[in-house]
């Protein structure tokens, strides 16, 4: 039945008000913190530039999802400012994330007041992660949320009849980051299974939902899978999963990528090997290992899973500042009576399934970045809004208080206000940081100074530069990055063999003293070289 004009107006406002808050704050935060950079963004930008220049052999890779770079290309063609282009695309990702979060709240059947409150909180939450993490995680999470909103919607809602559309969004999420593939599979199977167990769907209806969603997914993902398979000469969905599992093996206790652990020369046309770490697939640091090949490996995997689980719990607690979201999701899932039937009356209880699907994928691999779990935030909100709302309804029933859909009773309002205040309190610090000047990436600011001071451009290497200044200098000067040696005992002769024209060395290392006395090295006269806070020295090398 078509919705009335009044219903469409109410629906529009739950989107428009959060967007009217989000977009201006995104602009302000980007102006306050213009110099943000990270190593992954260097790769996404370089891949985008390869696409823009038609160097498809260099652009296509299985480690970085293509969609973020694809979206940067047209913006980069217009602005010619790579960081600004990435910020604009990241802002688009934040908007999609907000829309996805609102759709999740609506799919769970919350009324307009809760949806609006949750939308505003989601808008504010996105500001920090758009400002300081210019990566595709917001975009991927937003696309996943939109897909999940179709999957989780009830049959009474229009969105519940479109699993194929959900699959299209899941496919787009996969094109953003390959980890969306296992998250999609786990989410679809878990939701379908729970619906069958709770008799919300027949087995046939549940499998039909999964099947139609996968058709939409394959339609979006299949062309890229074929491109990757042709590029690598074998069936390839992604190379990031196998690398990220190899990275955390017992042979690599410091979890070092070869690009940032040894000297290395990128192939012609590339600035860094970080543009496609797959090229290092045979490096000892990426040694494949199986938890079932030995007892030692099995114990290592179990310890890693337990460590990651504790870390994920910490990150999720940080999202709302109190940990009430995780508590509400678990409590709401386990303790309702009747357990099965109440999934229909309180669909927000499915939130724990989505949270588990997003986090479980990372348990056996590298899981040390909170941005991986941004998709959990709207589900933490849903559970926290849902649980006190139900408790308030119980209290109202006990005291005989009447409640209507249009005018929630005062007890329910108090619960919603308290939930909003709790989540708002958790956002106060990150939001304040986002809107305050002076929080730029120090390494990138330093790299700009170094790049401007170099007398000429040439290949760059580093020793002990964990902040990645040398990588940023290479990117800014469009010169090859020859990697970094993490060992302290590096000789001048070894540095000369790399062929690097410049080397950035952490102040105080033995090689710093050796270079200062070596006739083949000249200390660059940088403005801040005598400042104790300046952690690096820059030397020009001759053979």
Structure description:
The chain is mainly alpha-helical. It has helices spanning 5-32, 39-53, 56-59, 66-79, 82-107, 112-132, 137-152, 163-176, 180-197, 203-232, 240-247, 295-320, 324-334, 342-345, 351-360, 377-399, 410-434, 442-453, 469-477, 492-498, 510-517, and strands at 460-463, 481-485, 502-506, 521-523, 536-541. The chain folds into two domains: 5-250 and 292-434, no CATH class; 442-541, D-Maltodextrin-Binding Protein, domain 2, CATH 3.40.190. It is built from 21 helices and five strands. A five-stranded mixed beta sheet has the order 2-1-3-5-4, with helices on both faces. α1 (5-32) packs parallel to α6, α7 (137-152) packs parallel to α9 (180-197) and α13 (324-334) crosses α16 (377-399).
List keywords for this structure.
single chain, 543 residues, mainly alpha, D-Maltodextrin-Binding Protein, domain 2, 2 domains, 5-stranded mixed beta sheet, 21 helices, 5 strands, 4% strand
- Cα-atom Rg, whole angstroms? 25 Å
Distance between the amino and carboxyl termini? 78 Å
Question: What is the approximate shape?
Answer: globular
Q: How large a portion of the residues is in β-strands, by DSSP E? A: under 5%
* Biggest sheet architecture: 5 strands, mixed
Query: If you average the pLDDT, what whole number results?
Result: 90
How many structural units, i.e. domains? Answer: 2
Q: By helix and strand content, what is the structural category?
A: mainly alpha
Tell me the strand order in the biggest sheet: 2-1-3-5-4
């Amino acid at each position: 039945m078509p919705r009335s004009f009044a219903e469409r107006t109410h629906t529009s406002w739950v989107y428009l008000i959060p967007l009217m808050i989000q977009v201006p704050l995104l602009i302000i935060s980007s102006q306050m913190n213009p110099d943000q950079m990270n190593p992954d963004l260097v790769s996404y930008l370089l891949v985008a530039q390869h696409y823009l220049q038609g160097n498809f052999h260099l652009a296509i890779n299985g480690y970085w999802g293509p969609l973020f770079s694809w979206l940067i290309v047209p913006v980069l063609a217009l602005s010619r400012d790579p960081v600004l282009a990435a910020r604009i695309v990241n802002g688009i990702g934040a908007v999609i994330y907000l829309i996805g979060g609102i759709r999740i709240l609506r799919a769970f059947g919350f009324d307009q007041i809760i949806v609006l409150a949750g939308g505003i909180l989601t808008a504010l939450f996105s500001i920090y992660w758009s400002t300081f993490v210019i990566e595709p995680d917001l975009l991927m999470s937003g696309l996943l949320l939109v897909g999940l909103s179709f999957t989780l919607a009830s049959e009474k809602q229009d969105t519940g009849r479109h699993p194929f559309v959900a699959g299209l969004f899941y496919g787009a999420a996969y094109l953003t980051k390959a980890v969306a593939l296992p998250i999609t599979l786990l989410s679809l199977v878990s939701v379908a299974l729970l619906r069958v167990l709770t008799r919300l769907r027949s087995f046939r209806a549940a499998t039909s939902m999964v099947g139609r969603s996968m058709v939409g997914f394959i339609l979006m993902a299949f062309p890229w899978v074929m491109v990757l398979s042709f590029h690598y000469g074998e069936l390839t969905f992604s190379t990031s999963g196998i690398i990220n599992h190899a990275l955390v093996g017992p042979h690599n206790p410091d979890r070092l990528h070869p690009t940032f652990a040894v000297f290395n020369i990128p192939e012609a046309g590339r600035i860094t090997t970080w543009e496609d770490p797959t090229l290092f697939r045979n490096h000892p640091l990426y040694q494949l290992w199986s938890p079932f090949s030995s007892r030692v490996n099995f114990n290592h995997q179990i310890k890693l899973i337990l460590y990651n689980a504790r870390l994920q719990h910490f990150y999720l607690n940080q999202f709302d500042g109190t940990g009430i979201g995780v508590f509400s999701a678990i409590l709401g899932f386990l303790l309702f009576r009747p357990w099965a039937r109440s999934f229909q009356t309180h669909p927000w209880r499915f939130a724990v399934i989505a949270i588990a699907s997003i986090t479980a994928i990372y348990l056996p691999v590298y899981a040390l970045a909170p941005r991986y779990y941004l998709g959990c935030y709207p589900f933490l909100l849903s559970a926290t809004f849902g649980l006190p709302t139900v408790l308030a309804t119980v209290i109202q029933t006990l005291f005989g208080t009447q409640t209507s859909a249009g005018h929630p009773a005062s007890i329910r309002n108090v619960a919603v206000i308290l939930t909003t205040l709790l989540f708002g309190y958790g956002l106060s610090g990150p939001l304040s940081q986002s809107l305050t000047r002076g929080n730029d990436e120090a390494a990138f600011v330093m790299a700009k100074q170094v790049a401007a001071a170099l007398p000429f451009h040439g290949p760059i290497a580093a020793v002990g530069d964990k902040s990645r200044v040398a990588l940023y200098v290479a990117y800014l000067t469009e010169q090859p990055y020859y990697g970094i040696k993490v060992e302290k005992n590096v000789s001048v002769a070894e540095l000369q063999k790399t062929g690097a024209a410049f080397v950035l060395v952490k102040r105080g290392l033995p090689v710093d003293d050796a270079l200062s006395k070596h006739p083949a090295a000249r200390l660059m006269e940088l403005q801040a070289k005598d400042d104790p806070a300046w952690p690096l020295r820059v030397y020009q090398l001759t053979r």
